[in-house]
Structure formats: C-alpha cells, structure tokens
Write a structure and sequence with these properties.
Blueprint: E1 2-6, H1 12-22, E2 26-29, E3 34-38, H2 45-54, E4 58-62, E5 73-76, H3 78-82, H4 87-93, H5 98-109, H6 115-124, H7 132-140, H8 148-157, E6 161-169, H9 170-180, E7 184-193, E8 196-202, H10 208-222, E9 229-233, H11 239-243, E10 247-251, H12 255-258, E11 263-265, H13 273-276
Helix pairs in contact: 4-5, 5-6
C-alpha cells in the first residue's frame, strides 16, 4: 500500500515520523500539500490514524497499483461539498429566516431528521419569496469549494464522467452544469407561481435513496462496475449514495459520514481527492 498524507504546511519531521511508523521505503512530494509514502505497511493503520488526527493531517491508504483511469464516474453532492454554501440556508436569509432553516438543515445532515420531511419543512418557510432571490444567491453567495476545478479537470483528463446529485435545487445545478462542464445533474425543483416561491417542491424529492438511485442509474448507463465509481458528500443523506461507490470520500463532513467513508478530507480542499485515486497516466 501507499499512504497519502495531506495538509497545509506538513513539517518534515512529521513526514519522517510517519515513514518510521509505516516502514515506508520513500517519500514522494505530489504537491505543496500532498505526499505519498511508498510501500507503507498498513498494519500501522491505527497508529497512523491517531498521529495524523493529532497533527491535523489527512491520511488515506491507497493500493499501489491503483490508477485514476481505473474509475469511470465521479458522483458529487452539491451543498457544502462542490460548493461552500447550503443554498437553502442562503435563500432563507433573504426571508430573514436563516437561523430557523439552518437549524433544520443541520439536524438533517446529522441524520436526526428524515431528509424529505426536513426539506418540505424548510421549503414551506420560503413561501412568498420572490424568485429573483435564487439568482441573487447564485450571483452573490455561491462559491466553489477550494480545489473543485482542479478535481474536475483531473477527472476530465482521465475520462471520468461526472454526476452532480443534490438534495438542493435544479436552479443551481442547471447553472453549474455548463459552467463546470458536468455530464449529468439531478436535484429538486422549487415550485414557482406568479414569480414567487409557493413553498412546495415539485415531483419526487431527491433524498438519500434518490441519490443512490441516480448513481446506479448513471453507472448502469455507462456500463460500469461499482468499483469504478467515486462518490463524495458531507451529510447523512449522502451515505446511501456513498455506499454504492467503490471509493467514498467524506469532505469536511459530519462525524457519521466520516465514520463510514473510505476516506475523509478535513484539512485540504477537493483537489485532495486526486492523490487518493492513484497514479495518473503521466506518472504511472
């Protein structure tokens, strides 16, 4: 196995200590924030995990023969994963209701409230809001997570298709799709009447099972195996989707998600996904 360690300004003594813990044959710098410890002994997983947590380092064990082009589909959550905000919380802020809506969002992401029920409750609070508020959120508040474009460029170069699947809203996914060159998107549709939100969602809600179903639908269309799919998210409603992927990544996620994912990134941006996918064609 190789051990990938990532973080901002990892001191050389920390790298040497990790090499000692794992018996790694060498240390390779992949970027300013990522290092590969080659031929590391994964029997040291427990000690390595404790050391990395104590020193604010992300770590992940990667099979030495893995290559990024072994994968064919990257499935991403949107809110607080591909982008930095929870769109519904920011829409609610336009109504002066952000604290009430954010509290429900947080409970849903921790898995304390059924997602579909939480979404209906939150959307109902938006009734009467002018539709133009959605464009304001997109223009003024929506930002990509650090490293998002680096990750997407690496996926594109490796021939990996992309699916953005969100418990949020089509208003945002449909604008991000052409902007980022995403292959597929799926999300919920807010009902609008006379230029205002009605407080209702149209059609079936994309909840935890809905996300998993979309992953499997696109995977089947592409003729891929489960092992060829990467899924990443941050909330409890991403867990079913992540369970359907060969590699799952918890990105700055809730504890319940970190505990069940293949990898957890807490220190670095989305570009930190790339080293976990193995060698590129240029280096392998």
């Amino acid at each position: 196995m190789n051990l990938i360690v990532q973080g901002h300004d990892i001191p050389t003594p920390n790298l040497k200590q990790l090499a000692k813990l794992t018996g790694a044959s060498s240390i390779e710098a992949l970027s300013l924030t990522a290092f590969r410890l080659i031929a590391a002994d994964d029997r040291s997983r427990t000690e390595v995990a404790a050391y990395c947590e104590a020193n604010a380092i992300d770590c992940g064990w990667v099979p030495a023969k893995r290559r990024i082009d072994d994968f064919g589909l990257l499935v991403m959550d949107m809110d607080s994963t591909l982008i930095t905000i929870e769109c519904i919380d920011e829409i609610a802020d336009m109504q002066g209701l952000k604290p009430q809506v954010s509290a429900i969002t947080e409970a849903a992401m921790r898995g304390e409230i059924d997602f579909a029920e939480s979404l209906r409750r939150r959307v109902s609070l938006l009734a009467g809001l002018d539709q133009s508020a959605l464009q304001r959120v997109y223009d003024e508040r929506l930002q990509l997570s650090p490293g998002a474009e680096t990750l997407l460029a690496a996926a594109r170069a490796a021939g990996i298709r992309t699916l953005l699947v969100s418990g949020g809203f089509t208003f945002f996914t449909e604008r991000l799709q052409p902007r980022l060159g995403l292959d597929h998107t799926a999300a919920n549709t807010l009902e609008v009447a006379d230029g205002k939100l009605t407080g209702r969602v149209l059609g079936d809600i994309v909840d935890a099972q809905g996300k998993a179903d979309w992953l499997n639908r696109i995977r089947s269309q592409l003729g891929l195996e489960k092992a060829q799919v990467i899924a990443m998210g941050d909330g409890a409603n991403d867990l079913k989707m992540m369970a359907e992927a060969g590699v799952s990544i918890a990105y700055h996620a809730k504890p319940v998600v970190r505990a069940q994912a293949s990898y957890a990134l807490n220190q670095v941006g989305l570009d930190g996904v790339v080293p976990l996918l193995g060698d590129t064609g240029n280096t392998g």
